[in-house]
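Data availability (excerpt). The following record was deposited with the supplementary files.
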Amino acid sequence: MNKNLLQKLDNLTSEPGVYQFKDDSGEVIYVGKAKRLNQRVRSYFQKSADHTGKIQALVRKISDLDVIITDSEAEALILENNLIKKHRPRYNILYRDDKTYPYICISNEERPRVFPTRTIIRDGSRYYGPYDHVGKMRLMLETIRKAFRLCTCACSSRMIDHSRGMPKWGKCFEDYFENCSYETEPEEYKQKINQVVRLLNGHTRELIRDLKHDMDALSENLEFEKAAVLRDGILSLEKYSSKMKMVSADGLDRDVFAIESDWDENVACGVLFQVREGKLIGKYHRFLKNIEGRDRKTLLQSFMEDYYTSALSGTVPDEVCMGNELQNDEPLFEYLWQSKNRKVPLTVPQRGEKAQMVQMARANASLLLKEWVLEKIKADQGRVPHSVKALERDLQLQRLPRRIECFDISNFQGAYTVGSMVCFVDGQPRKSEYKRFHIKDVDGPDDFASMRQVVRRRYERLKQTGGQLPDLVVVDGGKGQLSGSVETLKEIGMHNDLAVIGLAKRLEEIFFPGETYPVMIPKSSSSLKLLQRIRDEAHRFAITFHRDVRSKQTFRSELQEIPGIGVKSSEKLIKHFGSAAEVAKQDFETLKQVVGKKSATAVFSYFSPEQKEEK
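Predicted structure:
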């Protein structure tokens, strides 16, 4: 732990807030909230704490810490959610929608518009949804048009092309079908928008009752035309309400949450049922990824916090029902209390209608999760080339070798020894993940020791950083290189995690750990051709690196023979000009700008024509 981080830990406050862990590069790798920042943050660094492997990997990467103090846990909850969405930290739970959900937006304007959208813009507008099916959203928009005679297209005054003779002041395409509501008086228009909000919040029964009261009042005043308009609107609302499924007889507003997880696929699915006036008006789900090390309580709490702190303006219900208890319900309880101005109970029902609703939500989550996994399997199978499947079959591997890493060693009479690692994913090179190694502390042309060093450095680092392990490791060489590599993997405790083979060049023999005799794959097999391609790419990459190192060392050695030119000056010249031959072509002023007057004089004199003739 560095001094800067240690000082920050010593000066932490006991106030509520949000903390951000950063790595050496300054990237945010984890965001969390706390009721007392000093206690929560320090708990990560306590040796006695029972941390999971993932938390231990996180702590090893922490290099810096930022904290933001808030007035309450509720504010910390909102800020944490926003920071996670902004930075998408590696060690936080990440959310993934299987599609872009449609919403109904009431714009933040002097004369608000009501229209469908799939994009949330944080400009003060109110968004209602999300709708799990676009047909349900269209049914709602149609009800709004018929019941309140409001325009529901997304056209605004900024989008009107006046050069084509279209009406001014925001009249839209629906005006040509006599469905535009722009001519409505401001006060009446405001009243209609308020009624739309009540409808979108699911308070249909109360809305119909109030409209019937207004209709009766208009009839008594002999305003029959206006009363007929309200009558038609009421019929539309009743028709819409009849299509909603009744799930509770008490008529209360409830949000029902449940979650199911698949630990093998490292994914979970959360489902929300929106129940208003006892009727199911909406269903919403999200997939949670990167869930390793989290229990069901933590996942459910994360899903609920993300929903309630999002940009949506849906009303807070009278009660929240959950499939199981939360890990820590205090921040969410405080947030709901502030939003509702009264206590909102968080319950885990065990019997009755509410328990049935929770069970229905859980069944939906389980079904959605199974569908997601099946789609993923189908997609993965569709992307895997035949050669990769053939390699799994021919080598009788335990899993599909989708990610293969191959090692090679290159040297010149024991000098300038280097190692290379190439990575192939689904039969194609992934050059961004190639690695090069300078071999250290190995005397002479010892390929066995060099290979052991490269394998150790690669997988020790991978073990520390928690990176993705390959499905197959290929060592360029026979039994000697393979045995040394396997012994190294045993020393670092990773021999059971990796499938390793050796590929000998002469007869294209394949060696397995502990096996005396090699395996021969038919020359025409696509699996052998894939292995040859990977081995040849590792060899090419190693040779290229070796030549580059040898060339630079040779050039650097020649420059260091010049009296007065040391290691640093020679490195500057090579870095700037590329080679000793290019350095020899430069004039005195150019050399002076790179290494100064004294060194430039020495180099220029060394490569001057008179000196060359003497040589």
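Summary of structural features: Confidence is low (pLDDT under 50) at residues 157-171, 173-178, 611-615.
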